[in-house]
User: Fold these one by one.
Assistant:
Number 1:
Amino acid sequence: MQAKASGFAFAGVALVSGLAIGAGVALTFFVPTTPEVLQSSSSARTVPVTMQDFTDPRTVDIAVSVGAPQGVSVSRSGIITAWSCRPGESIESGKSAVTLDGVPLVSLSTSVPLWRDLSVGDDGADVSALEAELARLGYAVDGNGTLSYRDLAAFSKLASSVGADVKDVVPRDAVVWLPAAAVEVDKCEIGLGSNVSAGQLLASVSADVEVAPVALPEGRIPGPRLLNAFGEPLALGDAGELPTDLPAGLVRKSPLFREAVGGSDNVTSVTLKGTAVLATPVQVAAVPATAVQVLDNGNGCVFTDTSPYAVKIVGSEFGNSFVLFADATPPTSVLSSVPKEHQECG
């Protein structure tokens, strides 16, 4: 009986000890802690202000209009004695892609196709279009809508550069008209050695594309911007204009455009997503997001032990806020959280 009583006593002690230990463990797990952002200013730690480059990336819509598919043809009959047609490759204005009866023809993109031979003194929309393209290619022209000896000399130099001889007139049949400064070949319709007639289709080419000016978002950091969308950065104008000499092939071959059209031949317009960034990065301060008191219109304040500093919030990433200080000399460190008692900033 005594041994049994001792056993009961030991079990009772063990039970009481277990309850005490359990209560201690429970207290350990349930002691409330205050998150750093809710601690008082006396417990807020100080963190250094880290400066870094920032390009202020902004997502923008890019509206692209797609023209109808076109063809490349010749204006006279003959046998093709040289033909550089390759699907997927480009035919460029100012160069020669086809030779007919041993005579190289000039590929030329004009807003109005040449429909007649041009002599000195002729005027009209076709002359103005010819002058404009010769000027774009770097040749000196008068540019007044009337073909001059200077204009004729410019075309003669262009023809000579591809191996053709043009002197007294601008012959219509010496030119292969292109719908754009550079066109991408979809399909070669005829081969080397073929006998072609005037007006016969040589190749089918991709539709031209036109990119509208990009609407730049409000609240962006001022400064010239670049558009990242088509594989290489493109300079944007003040109103979001793209370069006037933007190659259509650069747009068509981009993964963004190809994914948007999905291989369809009937697409007339698409809207792509790009990123507009500062051409020259600015220095911004990276501080914990908890350190910023957010006001209206992207403004805010950060705090030191003694005073607030006005800032402009320009971005955020991984729990940090990127800010520009209103003061010329920012602090070297700030409180990691907004103190409960602080001087108001505005």
Number 2:
Amino acid sequence: MTDTPTTDRSISRRTLARGAAWSVPTVALAATAPAMASSGPPPTFQFTGANKIPGNSCKPKWFKGYVFNFTVCNPSGVSIWIHTVSYVIGSDKTFKPNDNQFPIEVPANSCVSIGFNATDQGSSSNEKFDATLTVFWDHSKTGNDPNTHTPTVVSITVPETPPIPSCADATSAPPAPNTTAASTSQKTAGASPTSTAPASTAPVSTAPAAPASTAPAAPSGS
């Protein structure tokens, strides 16, 4: 009687088992890829000036206190969402964020103008002071980003806080009028301060208008 060989069949089974074992880590790594992809560098902040909001003139969106205007840039490839800001202003002022304005989106690879409204229960006068803003952000509109992002700390010197021209200006957060940009520094815990270049101020060339034609009118027939 001739024996039926089984060697090839046994090797085949072992080879399949090894292939199955190696495929498990590959699947696990692929599952974590989307979460890792949502991480990225922090936003940068260029201080452009500050205004005061007197009384309740800009309710219900804006409240009595100050608006700190920034150009905020997102250097990452996914949207950044700012969820709140905490304030330390001078040595004798207690402010809180205006929760009505959050969350704020800064789209991927872009810059936007944002006015952060710090509300004050006391008086809002035209003053000069130092301020520190701690900005809490992540990559999720609802704050459910699976990654942990260190809040960005921004330190500024505010040279003056003239009244805001109109409540509409608070919404668009333009640079404060008659305000020279003060020195701005920012840091993320455990990281070096990030330098942000100011926006270009190159003059715009305007060609003179062409002179109006002075040709005499044709004589009328008789």
Number 3:
Amino acid sequence: MRTTTLITQILLIVGGLNWLLVGLFEWDLVAALFGGQTAALSKIVYILVGLCAIWQLIKIPSLYEDRASSHVSTTGSTRPTDRT
């Protein structure tokens, strides 16, 4: 699961940088590398980036659950510990 999350994050970064280039310079790196926006390889990259975004959206609730559970005390005590 961690490998999938890492791969999706990397592809989202690539997609974000591509959109930065489109916004700043009107230059689509993916299209330039793979033969235009309508080329099969370009479409595959665009689809993969979109699927990665969906994967990351699905993962958002679990991020909050992990953080909430990490703040739960495992000692059974509700009193704060004295750290001097």
